[in-house]
Design brief:
By secondary structure, the protein is of the alpha+beta class. The chain is 26% helix and 29% strand. The chain has 7 helices and 13 strands.
């Protein structure tokens, strides 16, 4: 079973997800945007072993703690898609744009693409490419538990911004309508910010999808 806890971090209340395999206690952090000490304490308190960092996209509020984490934990950074490399290369400019404290630079160990999969212990997360918010944005899906970690593609009652460099609103809506929603109405998703929802609820009630 894939266990999880959502840990909102930074002034942007970005939903970092700590996920772990119940059989092995091996864990991953999805989008560690900041508050490194808090994230490490959560892992320690749950007696978990961090084995990877998974990134949905390259925006600072989703990757800000990555450099500090790998300096102490020596785990691979997996994702996002390579089309987001320019965002990670520009971390210094992002710090200035978002008003964050400086963060260490890093380079992902593995870029992801549609059809890839990643493991957390004995559990498998499928990778879906969902551009629009950023060009290399990916989503992690656990089919058995009908669970998706969607970053900033879709929110409870909203959708991601598309006014950043290389964002595109029509591409974003296409990603939601043709990649995410077909997974099924009964899928729960963890957004990058705010409360969870289901694809079915958003299909019926999200004003941006009508």
């Amino acid at each position: 079973m894939l266990n999880r806890v959502t840990l909102p971090v930074t002034a942007f209340a970005q939903n970092c997800s700590l996920v772990w395999c119940s059989a092995t206690n091996k864990a991953a952090l999805i989008d560690p945007g900041g508050e490194t000490d808090r994230l490490l304490a959560e892992i320690k308190n749950r007696h978990l072993t961090l084995e990877s960092i998974l990134l949905t996209h390259g925006h600072l509020d989703h990757v800000g703690a990555t450099g500090e984490l790998i300096a102490t934990e020596s785990v691979p950074v997996i994702g996002p898609g390579q089309d987001d490399a320019f965002w990670i290369t520009a971390l210094v400019q992002q710090v200035q744009m978002f008003g964050f404290a400086p963060v260490p630079h890093f380079t992902p160990d593995l870029w992801l693409k549609a059809g890839d999969s990643v493991t957390v212990g004995n559990e498998t997360l499928e990778v879906y490419h969902c551009p629009g918010h950023t060009p290399g944005h990916v989503v992690f899906v656990h089919q058995e538990q009908k669970l998706a970690f969607v970053g900033d593609v879709l929110f409870n009652g909203g959708v991601g911004r598309s006014d950043f460099p290389r964002g595109c609103h029509s591409t974003l809506i296409n990603s939601i309508m043709h990649t995410l929603l077909p997974l099924g109405d009964d899928f729960t998703f963890v957004p990058g910010h705010g409360p969870e929802s289901t694809f079915g609820h958003e299909r019926l009630h999200n004003p941006y999808l009508r």
